[in-house]
Description:
The chain is mainly α. It has one domain (2-326): Na+/H+ antiporter like fold (Up-down Bundle). The protein has 17 helices and no strands. The protein has helices at 2-7, 10-24, 30-53, 56-63, 66-86, 88-95, 97-108, 114-122, 127-153, 162-182, 184-193, 195-219, 222-225, 228-255, 260-270, 275-285, 288-326. Helix 2 runs parallel beside helix 12, helix 4 (56-63) packs across helix 9 (127-153) and helix 7 packs across helix 17. The radius of gyration is 19 Å and the shape is globular. The model is unreliable at 1-7 and 156-160 (pLDDT under 50).
Amino acid sequence: MSRLRLLFDNFTLIxxxxxxxxxxFPAHGQGAFIFERITSLAIALLFxxxxxxxxxxxxxxxxxxxxxxxxxxxxTFIMFPCIAYALKPxxxxxxxxxxxxxxxxLCVLPGTVQSAxxxxxxxxxxxxxxxxxxxxxxxxxxxxxPLLLSLFLKTDAxxxxxxxxxxxxxxxxxxxxxxxxxxxxxxxxxxxRNRFRLANVDQxxxxxxxxxxxxxxxxxxxxxxxxxxxxxxxxxxxxxxLALVLYATxxxxxxxxxxxxxxxxxxxxxxxxxxxxGVPMAQVLFNSSAxxxxxxxxxxxxxxxxxxxxxxxxNYLRRRASAxxxx
Length: 327
């Protein structure tokens, strides 16, 4: 029971409940308008706090390890989307176009920040480099994700124009982030002291966006276009995608002779996709009918990556402990 509880934490259970609530009781009319406005404010607050949490000394400490960062960025922004695009002849007939667009969207997103650093710390990897890579991935993704989405889809497919999307993302995400980071000298200590309490802001913002997005999609007929069989196939696809990337990042780290600490950082930073960034960005990049299918792969992949990385981090930790004992 304790292991099952570890894999399915409170946030995951609440997230599932929110999807069910949006399916049974979708917001519409004036209610949908109010939720959209509240969600926009929550997103701005979320990225303001992310900016305030980002420490410049931590960035400087990890920024010089360019080979590691290059490996992480290549996995995040090249390997992932190339795999999904190469498998288009197989995935699009299996999943249908709306879910395949969601898989592409998942693959062009930046990596996570909090969980990548947390798992790197658990496994005793290179934490300063993880902080630098994860933070830079999140910032670069604000501009790069819309460009990659346009490149790999080669059609509108529910996406707004790339220039408008980048402009909107900059206003809704980048400006609050920069404002928070600019104010860090004054509010940074308070943010650091209340880091665990402020984690509720992250989760609440994601839940608001998920409810608002799924409400709009359910109203537009989401579950009539996405059958249960497609969801099962999508789950298998997400598992296979994660397994392939984990194998590739591990093999490449060892091939290029990174030490164990750096290998851990590459694996955990290069194999993750960010829900904290992906869900708000979907609000900007997709119209109301496309946002639900676009988010489904991310929601499924997010839980799978957490479950797998819990086990993987513990395995790394046991291996490090055994090696230390042997030495």
